[in-house]
Write a structure and sequence with these properties.
This protein has about 475 residues and is α/β, with parallel strands linked by helices. The protein contains 18 helices and 15 strands. It is globular, with a radius of gyration of 21 Å. Its EC number is 4.2.3.1.
């Protein structure tokens, strides 16, 4: 399997090199040169497989030639064996032909665990083989950071620096990052917003001279391995609901477009998916594109669903690449114009093509709380605010009541007590056993100015397990 850049100027790489590269050298994102496609008979034969075995079937083509089958199987079994639910990603019914896919049974109670617990093990495997050491600099709007730290904390050849916007993540999210100690773990609170953090990460990948010879690795969803791992649970959900003999629809809470892009890939790999709903909050750049062909950067707003408080959606470039016939030069020009002017529209026929599969909705904080309250009243289930946005969008945008609708349950509600409290849900939320003392644990975090040179200086000074790089 070879991977190419969405901007057409970077060399094609194998999986191992893509894993370590993250962002392409031309500023683009890596995608498979050719997507594997499975027959309906092949997909049907996977019904009833344990999650780790299904993951092997779905992801094997992506790592072919880089990781031996036996090694990959062991990595997957270890990754998903650490989840708290035997089904790994169980489905819970909310209403008639309406389901929530619970993706929060991993160590950090968020869907990011599906990819980042795997990513840590893949990095350990590849770096040990290469006898190489790397630095991770990642940006998080809440959940990526804790999942990345948890996934990489035991990696012998990784130093990890996670940037989060100061005082703009929930307390549970922050503590899940700042209470994990290790010589290779560094939490940085940036006096800015998530997009500031993300821009610093992109700038650091573009010029890595501050590392003095060590290379950067991405844990954000720009890393292809993140997208690859998320494809699996679309197959898992569909197989539980009669797929591939019948099609399934998905509503996906998304800010960076990575999770829903995985669903788009699953469909292109042969899984019958009739509809993908982009569910977002007031920071609605994706909804404005899907509903009106306007991809325009606007002011960031703090909401009750902070993991989607994002102005610019990094992974959207991967979809644009396909919509433009995989023309890297066209995407490079489009993204350059976006950087200069802050917005764009695409040709009408390309936008119309996207609308055949995608619908979208922007959901307010008030609607989010109403949905949490309504679902609790009718089912006794408590939703986190992001999942509630997915449910609300599913009910507003659903094309067919005959098609099973699956909402991706992206996080455990205990991570967002403010939203649950505002919704008036009286049920006390308890942290899982492994986190019961979270609020008593010591925290370790460094607050830094919103200044790229300051952040890069900190990374250079504290890398290599506390020794300057």
């Amino acid at each position: 399997m070879r991977y190419i850049s969405t901007r057409g100027q970077a060399p094609a790489l194998n999986f191992e090199d893509v894993l370590l590269a993250g962002l392409a050298s031309d500023g683009g994102l890596y995608v498979p040169e050719n997507l594997p496609r499975f027959t309906q008979e092949e997909i049907a034969s996977w019904a009833g497989l344990p999650y780790h075995e299904l993951a092997f079937r779905v992801m094997r083509p992506f790592v072919a030639g880089s990781i031996a089958d036996a090694d990959f199987k062991k990595i997957l079994e270890e990754t998903y064996g650490a989840f708290a639910h035997a089904a790994v990603a169980p489905l819970r019914q909310l209403g008639s032909n309406e389901w929530v896919l619970e993706l929060f049974h991993g160590p950090t109670l968020a869907f990011k665990d599906f990819a980042l617990q795997l990513l840590g093990r893949l990095l350990d495997h590849v770096l040990a083989k290469r006898n190489e050491r790397v630095v991770i600099v990642g940006a998080t709007s809440g959940d990526t950071g804790s999942a990345a730290i948890e996934g990489c904390r035991r990696c012998d050849n990784v130093d990890i620096f996670i940037l989060h916007p100061h005082q703009r993540v929930s307390e549970v999210q922050r503590r899940q990052m700042t209470t994990i100690f290790g010589e290779n773990i560094h939490n940085i609170a940036i006096e800015g917003n998530f997009d500031d953090c993300q821009e610093m990460v992109k700038a650091s990948f573009a010029d890595q001279s501050f590392l003095k010879g060590t290379r950067l690795v991405a844990v954000n969803s720009i890393n292809w391995a993140r997208i690859m791992a998320q494809i699996v649970y679309y197959f898992h959900a569909a197989l539980q609901l009669g797929g591939p003999a019948r099609s399934v629809a998905f509503s996906v809470p998304t800010g960076n477009f990575g999770d829903i892009f995985a669903g788009y890939l699953a469909r292109n790999m042969g899984l019958p998916i009739s509809q993908l709903i982009v569910a977002t909050n007031r920071n609605d750049i994706l909804h404005r594109f899907m509903s009106g062909n306007q991809y325009v950067k606007e002011t960031l707003h703090a909401t009750l669903s902070p993991s989607m408080d994002i102005m610019v959606s990094s992974n959207f470039e991967r979809l644009l690449f396909d919509l433009h016939g995989r023309n890297g030069a066209a995407i490079a020009e489009l993204m350059a114009n976006f950087k200069q002017g802050g917005g764009f529209s695409v040709e009408q026929d390309r936008w119309t093509e996207a609308r055949k599969l995608f619908d979208s909705l922007a959901v307010s904080d008030e609607q989010t709380c109403t949905t949490i309250a309504e679902v609790f009243a009718s089912t006794g289930e408590v939703l986190d605010p992001h999942t509630a946005i997915g449910v609300h969008a599913a009910r507003e945008c659903r094309r067919s009541l005959d098609t099973p609708m699956v909402v991706l349950g992206t996080a455990h509600p205990v991570k967002f007590p403010e939203a649950v409290e505002k919704a008036g849900v009286g049920k006390a939320l308890e942290l899982p056993a492994h986190l019961t003392d979270l609020f008593e644990r010591e925290e370790r975090c460094t607050v830094l100015a919103n200044d790229l040179k300051v952040v890069q200086g900190f990374v250079s000074q504290h890398g290599n397990r506390g020794k300057p790089l």
